[in-house]
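Sequence, please.
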């Protein structure tokens, strides 16, 4: 089987992105900057209230492997869509972007998942997500040969919500561990951390080599307000951690100590959707190719800087070309 830089597991979701003001968020009871789960009825209602929208295949880990492919890396994705029109769109987008995607679709169940993303003028995104068919992912969908062919397996923290997703997490991690494949994961959202703190910590200590988080997530994980204390606690749990801090850049924690890397300058922040996903893409690509941590983080910031300059969670300019222009 083809060798892959990264094989990712995640919620297969189509993003619906529209501009909104803060008053809209207040009227609809949406917590700014959060990811809230909604049912199919609310998804239809909220969609009808949103402004003109852009629809694009998304999902956190799906965005990340799309970024890896944009760097010229080899990537594969495991995630569940329905046997419907949006499911076909999702599968086509993944494959057209150079990502191997062969998870069988769900037949006769819930519709393909979608995330309704309202972006305020400051670039902040507020997500209301109908998980639909994505939560039908189970351990049976994890292809052992695909996991064994990876340099790195990447797990999306949102999968900790459904029982089947958590089982898929465990199955992929066990196969990877037995094959000597490094396991990475993202905490995904502070609300995910609040719901599953104990389980996430246990899983990280038992099965994870590399953790991605933002500042809010790592503080929530250890229930502290001080970033340095949270970073130290995270460093004691895993071999490598990459923590993003928005405009302040990121901090890489490892056995070599703590490395602060500045963010990539951007002319204008349009939409922060996918910024963390693309940072992970750059970092994972660099790690898979044996690059030093400083370069991994710089590649991550390069990808994040590209994606926040336009609407949508995936690169619109080839990241490989941008990296080459920067000497990376």
């Amino acid at each position: 089987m083809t060798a892959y830089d990264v094989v990712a597991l995640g919620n297969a979701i189509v993003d619906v992105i529209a501009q909104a003001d803060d008053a809209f968020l207040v009227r609809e009871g949406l917590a700014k900057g959060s990811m809230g789960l909604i049912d199919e009825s609310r998804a239809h209602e909220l969609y009808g209230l949103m402004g003109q929208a852009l629809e694009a295949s998304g999902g956190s880990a799906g965005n990340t492997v799309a970024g890896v492919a944009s760097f010229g890396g080899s990537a594969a994705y495991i995630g569940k869509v329905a046997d419907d029109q949006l499911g076909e769109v999702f599968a086509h987008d993944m494959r057209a972007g150079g990502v191997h995607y062969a998870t069988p679709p769900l037949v006769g169940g819930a519709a393909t998942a979608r995330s309704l993303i309202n972006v305020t003028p400051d670039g902040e995104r507020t997500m209301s997500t109908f998980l639909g068919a994505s939560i039908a992912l189970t351990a049976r969908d994890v292809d052992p040969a695909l996991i064994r062919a990876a340099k790195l397996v990447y797990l999306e923290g949102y999968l900790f919500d459904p029982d089947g997703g958590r089982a898929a997490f465990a199955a992929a991690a066990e196969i990877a561990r037995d094959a000597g494949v490094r396991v990475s994961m993202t905490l995904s959202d502070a609300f995910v951390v609040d719901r599953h703190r104990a389980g996430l910590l246990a899983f990280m200590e038992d099965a994870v080599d590399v953790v991605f988080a933002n500042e809010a997530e790592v503080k929530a994980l250890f229930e502290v307000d001080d970033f340095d204390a949270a970073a130290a606690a995270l460093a004691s749990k895993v071999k490598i951690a990459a923590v993003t801090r928005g405009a302040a850049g990121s901090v890489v924690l490892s056995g070599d100590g703590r490395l602060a890397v500045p963010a990539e300058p951007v002319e204008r922040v349009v939409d922060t959707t996918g910024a963390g996903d693309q940072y992970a893409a750059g970092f994972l690509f660099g790690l898979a190719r044996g690059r030093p941590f400083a370069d991994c983080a710089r590649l991550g910031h390069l990808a994040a800087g590209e994606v926040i300059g336009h609407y949508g969670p995936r690169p619109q300019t080839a990241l490989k070309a941008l990296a080459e222009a920067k000497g990376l």
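The mean pLDDT is 93.
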